[in-house]
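Okay, is this right?
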Amino acid sequence: MEMRIDFHTHIIPEEIPNFVEKYGSQKWPVLKKTCSCGADIYLEGEKFREVTDQVWSAEKRIEDMDKEGVDMQVLSPIPLTFSYWAKSEEAEDFSQLQNDFISNIIKEYPSRFLGLGTVPLQDADAAIREMKRCKFELGLHGLEIGTNVNGLNLDEPYLDEFFAKAEEWQVPLFIHPWESLGLERMPRHNFMYTISYTTDTTLAAASLVNGGVMEKYPKLKICLAHGGGTYPWLLPRFDQGYNVWPHLREISNPPSYYAKKFYVDSLVYDSKNLQFLIDTFGEEKIFMGSDYPFLLREINPGKVIDDSKELNEETRKGILGLNVLEFLNINIEDVKK
């Protein structure tokens, strides 16, 4: 029997304390209800996004999952809530609010939801402290982190201890774009979502590889959002750069060697692109992700997998659900209970 697990979904608490008043910055997200089934998210006093109750309601999500044939969702925060710009103790407070919320949902509906937490990545000590709480107290299955920390790439030396602990504690990391490259050139046509996000994911992946993080922590599990952005397609170019600029090398092998350690979601919309991901990373490194409940999401989740008629049954089962469980270090029997 197929198990369909949607790895890439986002959620936010319905009730958020007023952090603008609490900490005195307009950058904190504010959720203003417009009706029982909708709200607007405000940032710095401006409306950022309209959302529906799909964003906070477990019951609404389950209704959609049943309609669209999804057995389980992996819940992760909305990236705008990472709050890396804030003081670390303030961001830790906001992280705890979200992590408690997600933990409570997966405890209430253990057969329908798994969960990823968030940490204040601007402070490695605070990030490790909250990662420990997520892993050992809240029962969360991994963390979602951003592609950069206030413009710093993920191979910054101060993050070494964080990645070392993630490897030691077997905490999988889902890397999702936020505050991405070139935003001043992106407003027209919503290029932030189609170009900037995918490019920032590429820079994050390249930094982790070329900066030696993937070499130093070989057991670290990392999944890249949106099919890895443009990174899979640029790998030959990164390898060429490695070959022609030996004086810049910080790693022992070409980038493509380490890239095979990455996992990616299947959110590429096209069966040819999905096959390319399989050829690049291996079928066991791909799993279904839809970006529920936002506009660019895949409907129904797994459509690109269903459209890929050449996939054999074992590969399909892996990408639709079993690979997610392996990534999150979960035994399939535990989710069947």
Observations:
- Residues 14 and 110 are 20 Å apart (CA to CA).
- The chain has one domain: 5-336.
- The first helix runs from residue 19 to 23.
